[in-house]
Amino acid sequence: MYNGIYNKEQFAYMYDTLVKWLTARVQGGSLGENLRVRGIGRVALYGINGLGAQVYQDLAEAGMEVVCFIDKNAGRFGGEKDGLPVLNLLQLEQVPKDCCVLVTPEFYFQEIMEELLKGGIPLERIISLSMVV
């Protein structure tokens, strides 16, 4: 997975997502509004660092309810961040059934989606960041 160095393809995924997001923000939109339009009210956020931290800030500013973080390296965060629980992939049963899981590591979406499916999260509750920017 992530080795600390972005390759060109990873950078292109991230760049494309960031440009779409920035364009929407300049036009006065937010991720929270985009989620609400899709009928999503509560979110479990996959990915804490980097882009995930920015997504969390955007969602919080829009009044979107983020119920927890999910991260494959959850142990590094001592069980919580910003007052929210941080779950690892073995704790997915704790994700409330009325939450969608918003995956922020765009380049690894397919791999993460497969792990979420194995952990019992239904496909209709898994969304990628690029789907809502």
Can you summarize this structure?
With 133 residues, this protein is α/β, with parallel strands linked by helices. It has five helices and six strands. The longest helix is centred in the first third of the chain and has 19 residues, at 8-26.
Largest sheet: 6 strands, mixed
The residue-averaged pLDDT reads 85
Catalogue the unreliable spans. none
The beta-strand count equals: 6
Cα end-to-end separation: 24 Å
Structural class: alpha/beta
Proportion of residues in β-strands: 15-25%
Instruction: Name the helix and strand elements from N-terminus to C-terminus, one letter apiece.
Output: HHEHEEEEHEH
Shape: globular
Adjacency order of strands in the biggest sheet: 3-4-2-1-5-6
- The radius of gyration computed from the alpha-carbon positions, rounded to a whole number of angstroms, is 14 Å
Number of helices: 5
Provide the helix percentage.
25-40%
